[in-house]
Amino acid sequence: MPKKNKTKYIFVTGGVISSLGKGIASACIGKILEWNGYKTAIMKCDPYINVDPGTMNPYQHGEVYVTDDGTETDLDLGHYYRYTLSPLTKESNITTGKIYRTVIEKERRGDFLGGTVQVIPHITNEIKNGIRLISKKHKVDIIIVEIGGTVGDIEGLPFLEAIRQMKNEEGFQNAINIHLTLIPYIKAAGELKTKPTQHSVGKLREIGIQPEILMVRTEKSLAESEKEKIALFCNVYKDCVIEARDVEDIYEIPLRFKKDKLDRIILSALNLKFKEKLNSSKWEKIVETRKNAKSIVRIGVIGKYITLQDAYKSIDESLKHASIANNVKLELIKIEADTLENKNDAALHETFKGIQGILVPGGFGSRGTLGKIIAAKYARENNIPYFGICLGMQIAAIEFARNVCGLKNADSTEFNKKTKYPVISLLTEQKKIKDMGGTMRLGEYECVLKQNTRAANAYAKKNITERHRHRYEFNSKFIKQFEEKGLIISGIHPKGSLVEIIELKNHPWFLACQFHPEFKSKPDNVHPLFRDFIKSAKHV
Ligand code: GLN
User: PROSITE patterns this protein is in (predicted)?
Assistant: First the structure.
């Protein structure tokens, strides 16, 4: 018999190929469950051996998302944040590396009393502990567990085995499996092909997992007969074959899911009540505004990993939110920083023609920094709104030092250890650190805003908290010199007086922050700095 008031589990796996949007699908499932009144937590299991993605190159992994508690996590947690109210803490992302580390620590302590330590049961038990920890830490009704990778990957097997075991242990109607696959359209045959999905579900069944719900990504609509075929071969009810058609706007997806009654299907499978009428009007308005906005705002993002779509995911999304708030259509122009380095003035003008706002995001290492400095200078001199984030703030400071304060070759000690003017230098607490993983200044820190500044006006309050991920800081020795030349320090971390926000006088909107505001923006709750950046860009 199903137990009352028990946390329910939804396991989301992916098949056929990667990059099907499992993270967004999980987040959107969370959203429709919230519309039904359920408190939901979403977590991600990543089968790779890194303890966390913090030390990975963005080309390998895309953006590293940071939570309030300072955990460096998979970028899917950013999707969870943007769509839902899911708690996001260090428990929300587990990896093979994290699991093995814990098991090996236990083994070294002697916790296994001389037993042989094995994948089953020791690793699978630790995975199950990790998943169940969420319900111990947070009071939620439903936990959505996204399993990274694709069914068939060797490294994903322990995770699949763990969720297979968990479904039995949790009991009837307390845990379900949703499998996301692809139905490719073969142009030459003019047909949608269901075979890869059949194979993927077959592979899951070999492990002992029978999904209740199949979500199939497709570019063309599925005919009833195709749904029937999938249902027959994959052993699921026809109503439980949900078509996940490509959409232009990812924020439309929860509304599609609602239309397809996915919430009812999930909630009935979990023996939970659903609402007859969902109140999604606020979300509908967001999608409508995006669709109907007429005037365009062009924003240039000057980055180092521009070719990789996911490298600046949260920034791209925050710019979208800000455009919704300002009722404009966003045109994102991504510029590889080092391409600016050898351009003369005319060529630079050509590159920035029509660009109404320049954003320099975070980054590490010296490649591309000169190009970013050139972009910051261009924005400052040509009165184009500038938004610097983390490295983007350090770049703004270096540019100001070199070209306004006359400090020749001023630099960050990250790029030039021997610079005569180290306007950006290593944080004191970083000096003794040797390990690279999880040792930056990470997570939420307080910041006090100076009255009558752009920052204070944007937030409309004095004390804020924002999330950080950096090792270097604005060198306070230079504050006086900078202020004399018209730079405003508008945000300070109260303990240790670290400079968190800088602005320029006599410029339409030039603001740069040491923290990452992009981690805290939602389509229905836009971050104030992004909102004001787009607002000023709109008038260029
Ligand atoms: N590399 C810089 C630092 O470590 C900036 C980091 C970032 O942009 N996230 O301080």
Answer: GATASE_TYPE_1 (PS51273)
Q: What SS3 class is residue 108?
A: helix
Separation of CA 68 and ligand 1 centre (Å): 17
- Position of tokens 């994959």? 234
Whole-number Cα distances in Å, 266 to 142, 212, 215, 509:
11, 9, 12, 47
Scanning 171-220, the segments in alpha helix (DSSP H) are: 195-207
The verdict on the CB of residue 45 being under 6 Å from ligand 1 is no
List the chain pLDDT tens, one digit each, 540 residues: 445 568 999 999 999 888 889 999 999 999 999 999 999 999 999 999 999 999 888 888 889 999 999 999 999 999 999 999 999 999 999 999 999 999 999 999 999 988 999 999 999 999 999 999 999 999 999 999 999 999 999 999 999 999 999 999 999 999 999 999 999 999 998 888 999 999 999 999 999 999 999 999 999 899 999 999 999 999 999 999 999 888 889 999 999 999 999 999 999 999 999 998 888 999 999 999 999 999 999 999 999 888 888 899 999 999 999 999 999 999 999 999 999 999 999 999 999 999 999 999 999 999 999 999 999 999 999 999 999 999 999 999 999 999 999 999 999 999 999 999 999 999 888 888 888 888 899 999 999 999 999 999 999 999 999 999 999 999 999 999 999 999 999 999 998 789 999 999 899 999 999 999 999 999 999 999 999 999 999 988
Is 208 annotated as ligand-binding? no
Q: What is the pTM of this model?
A: 0.95
Q: How far is CA 29 from CA 34, 42, 139, 178, 222, in A?
A: 9, 10, 18, 10, 21
| Residues 375 and 240 grouped into a single domain | no
E strand or H helix at 214: strand 213-218
- Cα separation, 231 vs 110, in Å, equals 49
Ligand 1 atom at minimum distance from 362 CA: 8
Question: Ligand 1 within 6 A of 471 CB?
Answer: yes
Our count of domains for the chain comes to 2
Quote the domain boundaries for residue 397: 294-537
For ligand 1, the distance from its centroid to the CA atom of residue 246, given in whole angstroms, is 35
The partner residues of 489 in beta bridges, in order of sequence, read: 502
Cα gap 265→270, rounded to integer Å? 9
User: Is 513 labeled as catalytic in the residue annotation?
Assistant: no
Contacts of residue 316, defined as CB under 8 A and 6 or more positions apart, other chains included, come to 301, 332
304 and 446 housed in the same domain: yes
If one residue of 302, 364, 417 were mutated to test the ligand 1 pocket, choosing by the most ligand atoms within 8 A of its CB, it would be 364
* Residue 391 alpha carbon to ligand 1 centre in Å: 5
Within a domain: residue 2?
no
98 annotated as a binding-site residue? no
The encoded tokens of residue 80 equal 């969870």
Residue 472 in contact with ligand 1 by CB distance below 6 A: yes
Q: Is the residue at 3 inside a domain?
A: no
Q: Are residues 206 and 347 in the same domain?
A: no
The protein residue whose alpha carbon is closest to atom 8 in ligand 1 is 362
Determine if residue 153 is labeled as part of a ligand binding site: yes
